[in-house]
Design a protein that fits this description.
Helix content: 40-55%
Number of domains: 3
Order of helices and strands: HEEHHEEHHHEEEEHE
Radius of gyration: 24 Å
Structural class: mainly alpha
Shape: flat
Length: 284
Amino acid sequence: MDIDISDILADISRPNVSSLPDTSSPYGDSYVYEPSIAATDHILLTRHWTSERCTPSLLPYPTALINRVMDRIRAQITRIEDLASGTYSNDYGHHQQQQPQQNLNLVLSILQTDLSRTQFLMRSYLRCRLAKITTSATYYSKYHVNSSTSSSDTDTKTPLLSEQETQYLQHHNHLLLNLYNSSFLLSLPPNLRRLDDNTGTTGRMDEGPDMAAAVMVRCLAREWNNETDVFADDGLEGGGQGTQGDVTQEENASVELRCERGGVLVARWRDVKSGVEKGALEVL
């Protein structure tokens, strides 16, 4: 039987996507992913990687997805080492005989290529998040880390930062404060030593990401709108300083948008942020 290699690769990498409605989603019959499928997790990881690289602010950390991918990476490394040494065990713990050298080299090459691809995505994804944390360290420390630790319903929400990222942020701020204190901060009056002081008129010291940056998104849900995300407080209009809490005024949507499945939008990040976080929109 004559089979093209492209057909084999396409069949292997085809995701298992169900067309049944997602009853837990407010967007009706959106795509339902099987989290146990490695190919599906790779697609989701690629989507998170693209979203993180193309958006100005941090997105919620996908703890379950990252844990599954890391488990597969460790298992893949173990399998490659066992194959390279000539002995490996199957799922029942029984040792298998070494395959012919020609087939073994092909299998090792495929496994190593797949491992390198996944490791690249993971490294790039985490480095992108660390770069955002470093750039806006004071902002994330004040408006997200402190507020999340004081809220009572933290367990029901997807965390913005992982535990390791939170530790990195705290250590980064501690080192930065020590550097500033030893360099010039201690020579200033006490009321001018705060790094998150916003009482001046020249700008914010805890400046966050640019929520007005333009992004391109595609709708994955049957239909989507951001009516509930538009800021509706008449007492505050455009560009307010906001207050510490779950969301500041600058992060709220400013324009009502609607889109149907397959539609593409170019909009401000603040107007589509909630849709991307819910999975109704995909960043291109």
